[in-house]
Structure formats: C-alpha cells, structure tokens
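> tool_call: predict_assembly(chains=two)
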Amino acid sequence: MRGKIPWEKERRGVYTLREWEIDPARSALLILDMQCGYVESNRGIGPVLKQRYPEIHDYYYGRIARVVLPNILKLRDFCREHRLQVIYTRMGLQLPEGKDLPDWSWRKALLSHYGETESPLFYRESPEYGITGELKPLPGELVLDKNTMSPLNSTALDQILRNMGIENVIVTGVLTSAAVEITARSIGDRGYNVIVVEDGCAAYSQADQENSLRSANNFVVKTADEVVDILTPLLRPA
Amino acid sequence: MNGTIGWQKDREAGPFRVPELRIDPRRTALLIVDMQNKFAKNLPGPLPNNLRLLEFFREHGLPVMFCRVGSLLPEGRDLHVKRRLTWLRPVEGGAISHCPKGCFDYEVAETLKPRPSEPVIDKNSQGAFNSSTIDHYLRAMDIQNIVVTGVSTSRCVEGTAGDAADLGCNVILVEDACNDTDPDKHRVAVATFARTFGAVKNTAEVIEELSRLLAEA
C-alpha cells in the first residue's frame, strides 16, 4: 500500500522534502561487503588492524558485533518476512593477483604495497571473500560480485533494480566511509529512494562514520528500528 | 615515462593507505566540475585556483575536461522526480533554482571558457558517471590520472571524483580549488575522499609535483 513516510530532516536554506510517498513493496535491502575478511576480527584484515591499529580494531569489530550485525539481521528477517528482496554484495579480486584491475590504479598499488597476506583486497576463491556465517544468503537472494566499492561501477545492480521494479533501497554494510557512502550517494543520484541505516553500518572510527553521513547527499539516514517502524504499517495487508 | 608522486602519506595516517604511486604524468587530465555562471558567482573562492590549474594544463598540452550540471530539457522533464521537485521549487525571493541547458547561468564561467578541443560534459546528476558518457572520454583519451576541481565539494565534486577513483583512475582532489555552500560539508567531504578514494592536495602542490614529473619524463 503506497503511503507517505518521513523523509529529509529540515535543512537550512534548501527546500526540504519532509515527507515522501513510497510503495513499500518496491523496497530492497542491500547488504554491502559483510564478508569474513572484513567483519570477523580474527580473519582477513582483523589481525593486521589489531597489530598496527589496535584502537581501530577494537572500535570497529566491537561495533560490528554489538550494533551492525544485530541490526542487519533484524532488517533481513523483516525483509524475508515481508518478501522484500535482499541483495548482498561481495568485494574483491575477480581474477588472481587482481588482473581485473587497471594495471596502474591506486587499488593495484595498495595490493602491491601491502602484499598478499596484509592486503584488504581478497581474491574471490579465498575463504575471506565469503559472506560471514550469520548472514549466509538463502537461495533466491541475490549475491553480486564486484571489484569496485560501488556495485554500480562493476555490477548490473542498476539494471537489476529496474527490472525488479525496486524504487526504495535500504543500505547497510561496511565500510560507511567507502562502499556504503559511494553506493548510497550514486543510487540516490540516479533517482532511487535511498535510506542508509546508520546503526547498520560501520567505519574505522566514529569520526569517519559521522563525516560520511554528514556529507549526506541523495540519501536519508535512519536507524534500523525507524526503518521497521516506518515500513510496518504500510506493509500490513489492508 | 612513469614517475613517483606522493599519494596519501601526509593525511590522517590510517589503515590501507597508498603512500606513493607510479604514474605517467602525460596521462593526467584536469576535470573542472560545474564551474558554471550560476555557481561561480555564489562560490567565488576557487575561481583563481581553477584558472591557475587550467593555464598550467593548457601550457603543458595536458587534456582538460569540463562538467556542467542542470536539466537538459527546459522544463526539467529529464530529472528524476525528487530532484525535479527540489530544483524547480521557488526559493526565497521568488526565483527558481533551475538552470536548464541553454541559459546563461548554465554556461561555464567566462574566465574558464572551454576551448573547442576540451570536452564539455553535460549531466543532470551530481556524479558525472551517473548521467553522462564521461567514462568513454576518459578511456578514449587514455587518461590515467585526474585532477578534480570545482563546486560543490560534497556533491558534484565528491560524487564525480569518488566514482572516477572507484573505476580505477588515480584521482587528486584539489582542496583549495573546490568550494561548498557549507564549509563544514567541504571539510567532511575532503576528509572522506582522503580517507578512502585518493589524494588530496592544494593547487601549488599539484603544479609543483606535476612540473617535476613532466620534466623528468
């Protein structure tokens, strides 16, 4: 059932869309890069962060375990219950040694600078590349593989959303200052209604998290509970 | 010939940063984002630095590209519905915050007037990659590195620079050649870009480092 939901918070000097009418059935949950190598503290980048940046390690993995995972699970269960599409992405090298990256790119430089064991980029056949156990996708849930931060830059996400008639995208995952921000910004820039779930995503520091969400363009920011509260009455059968 | 340029070494030390990069300076383009009459008069700050960079790139025969933002059709029918509502909405004083292609406000500021050989890319979104063929230009022109300037930092500049970096280009955001209506948003956009996407430098650094690399090449 179409209905109005609270949209932007008041912005000074700019016209504000305080409410927005949506069709809740046309919503999808996007879960970005919740892969073993990025969200399990004892694997992937975990040991590197622990050794070199213990503060970041504790903040980041603490937030994933206490805040982000429970909220994504809550939203995923909600979406499954209401038959809303769940879409996962996985980021990494699609070919060994990153042959699928431009030879001169900064990302390739990152790979050579940190070496195979410390790099934050994982080859798709490596165990770190898989989605973390608690979020294991069901058959019928879409999993998109990408070698960029934004799925718009290396997957058919835009086409797929249009084919499925999706108008509203709820964005969660890691990192807020990377994949989450660029994805939300770009999808919103193309006209979708985008909600970033502030307690469903994490960055390496509270400052990074706030900076990314403060420069918010083309998307609105809400909590997981707010998303559930807003959508529930609209999804209830008339 | 490739040379080494400092990349993310001086900025907020953090995990997974690229301290320096080997680049071919001759494959570097200047991308001036949305320095149109409409914005240039409201955000005059970056104009002199944009001009300095433009002169430097032209002098060295390096490619220059421009973006312009606005609706492509007079009534804004090409805009997505939320943007159409926001942009066509009367603002204070009764004027309409809307400059479709063809009106004076839509043109690139006279001081920076593009030459016929310099691509001017029209877009009706903030990020150029979301509504234009900019990617084709970058590939066809064999561009490896992009120096990005313009307005506004947290919107069209970061939107465009972030996607360029995500697609594999080495992107330098020129801090003092960008501006935002909100200084706080300028600051957070620059911080996010430096953290994740590429290098942040000022105009003098870009000119100095590219001069050195070009001389070595």
